[in-house]
Predict the 3D structure of the following.
Amino acid sequence: MSGWAPELAALITESDTEPVHRPHFGLPIDHRWPRVPGVTLLGDAAHLQPPNGEGANLAMQDGAELGTALAAHPEDTEAALAAYEQAMFARSADLATDGITMNRILLGDNAAGKLIAVLTGG
């Protein structure tokens, strides 16, 4: 924590407990699952990726798009689910890439300096 403000470093160094290191898990960006009749995933279940602040947005958009697909195919649930999944995979790929990039910035070497550069456009 060289170069950190003492007040910020103290939040970690003067804690009553040791830090708990927890792994972040994610699926490859191009991960797809085979269609299972009558079943699909949405929200965090469909987007296992490092946290980047987009989980709730993805879940709400997934729900809206799934509803739209079901309404567009009222007699063919499988067509609706296939259409939803195709659009969902394409839509979420960029956000997954952003999450992986942000994870590398926040958890890598010189994280504070890299985050400052992101936030200041540097």
